[in-house]
Amino acid sequence: xxxxxxxxxxxxxxxxxxxxxxxxxxxxxxxxxxxxxxxxxxxxxxxxxxxxxxxxxxxxxxxxxxxxxxxxxxxxxxxxxxxxxxxxxxxxxxxxxxxxxxxxxxxxxxxxxxxxxxxxxxxxxxxxxxxxxxxxxxxxxxxxxxxxxxxxxxxxxxxxxxxxxxxxxxxxxxxxxxxxxxxxxxxxxxxxxxxxxxxxxxxxxxxxxxxxxxxxxxxxxxxxxxxxxxxxxxxxxxxxxxxxxxxxxxxxxxxxxxxxxxxxxxxxxxxxxxxxxxxxxxxxxxxxxxxxxxxxxxxxxxxxxxxxxx
Length: 310
Hints:
There is one protein chain. By secondary structure, this protein is mainly β. It has helices spanning 45-55, 211-217, 304-307, and strands spanning 28-31, 63-64, 91-100, 106-107, 112-116, 153-157, 163-169, 180-192, 195-208, 250-253, 263-271. Strands 1, 2, 3, 4, 7, 10 and 11 form a seven-stranded mixed beta sheet that branches. The two termini are 25 Å apart. Mean pLDDT is 79; it is low at 1-58 and 289-310.
């Protein structure tokens, strides 16, 4: 199955030490986005945004601390909706709504939401030689045209209703982690040269998937070529069992009888725009190999000015 798919003093690359968070220091209110499930088709992004904005006021109740950004973060991701770059996998449309938890859960217009995750075999761009555990083909055997330094990474800027939308694929897994997507919420910066610069990070977190859905997806191609011991939510080092308040996505199948057609995932993120997250929250995340690259992707990566899209 193939998916169709400077203010440099501000800290954007964070330490990996474990620490707790509070509302005043990067805390979040997170709730599942339920009301959008009445729609079975994507009539318009504005319609989704309106539904999301109207649903947040009663769902912005639970506060959540930041968790670790993990070892696979890279600066310089592109501002774009479709982050797949041709990577194969089950399509995933991700809608996240950012609201201000300190001000009645009003939408945070202009917030920059950044996500990154592994491909169907457990490989991250920028770290394509890092062994995902179990038995998997080398990342180079996928035969796609994706840029090895930029695939499955990107930003979107929240609209007037605080909504962002990404087109991606269902992530694979790697040892010792469960299936997940990393996320940061930034405010105060601006789009520049195809990426997002300046401002501060209000939240660093991870998004999770129900075990039954993930395990069904992993029986499909190309995921099925990665075999081994999959870590369930209950055994994950980061997920704490709190459901939506801990980043568990609400998922809707595009076609109930055919999971290969893809999923839509929803979550509302309530941030404190005045807080700053260190990216060093609880949990581990696995350790990259000693020769893995860090920091900004190499200069031969895709040019933001030519590769970025809305």
